[in-house]
Amino acid sequence: MPETTGCYRSVAGGIVVAVRVTPNAKQDSIDGVGQLADGSAVLHIRLRAVAEEGKANAALCRFMAEAMGVAKSAVTIERGSKSRLKTVGISGPPALLAAKAARWPARKSATAERD
Q1: Coil, helix or strand for 27?
Q2: What DSSP string describes 34-50?
Q3: Assuming Cys at both sites, which of 29, 49, 101, 113 could form a disulfide with 59, CB separation 3.0 to 4.6 Å?
Q4: Could you give the CA distance from residue 60 to residue 58 in angstroms, rounded to a whole number?
Q5: Which residues have C-beta within 8 Å of that of residue 3, sequence separation ≥ 6?
Q6: Phi and psi dihedrals of 10, rounded to 5?
Q7: Could you tell me which of 15, 12, 27, 39 has the C-alpha nearest to residue 100?
Q8: Fold for the domain defined by 18-89
Q9: How big is the CA angle at 53 (ends 90 and 9), to the nearest 5 degrees?
């Protein structure tokens, strides 16, 4: 049975991550793990790439590969290629990838950012 923790779950051969992407950002960054209105956890990522012709999707795969220390070919968009909400698969040792994902910070709340 897959292990689920926050915005990711371990599967045979890697992990699967729920991601919310904001394109056209000032810089590429991980904003942290937050919750959607329905209560589901997602990893918030900002990318400089524009959301046209798959540019943001390619940038997401490159960014996630670098952040997780895997080859670009190990990162795939499993669902949501035309949506801000995506499911990203990362191939590799599940325990190692899960350990890296567990270090993602919690997202700051909007009110904390204004203070």
Answers
A1: coil
A2: EE-TTS-EEEEEE-SS-
A3: 49
A4: 5
A5: 9, 10, 98
A6: -80, 135
A7: 15
A8: Conserved Hypothetical Protein Mth637; Chain: A; (3.30.1200)
A9: 20
Any idea which residue has 């919690």 for tokens? 106
Residues 6+ apart with CB under 8 A from 16: 8, 9, 78, 87, 88, 89, 90
Q: Could you tell me which residues come within 8 angstroms of residue 88 by beta carbon, excluding any fewer than 6 positions away?
A: 16, 17, 19, 60, 61, 64, 75, 76, 77, 78
- Computed on alpha carbons and rounded to an integer, the radius of gyration of the chain in Å comes to 14
Tens digit of each residue's pLDDT (9 = 90 or more) over 101-115:
999 888 776 534 433
Length of the chain in terms of residues written? 115
Question: What is the tens place of the pLDDT at every residue in 7-23?
Answer: 999 999 999 999 999 99
- Residue 43 · residue 18 · CB < 8 Å: yes
**Amino acid making up residue 95:** A
**Tokens 């203070």, located at residue:** 115
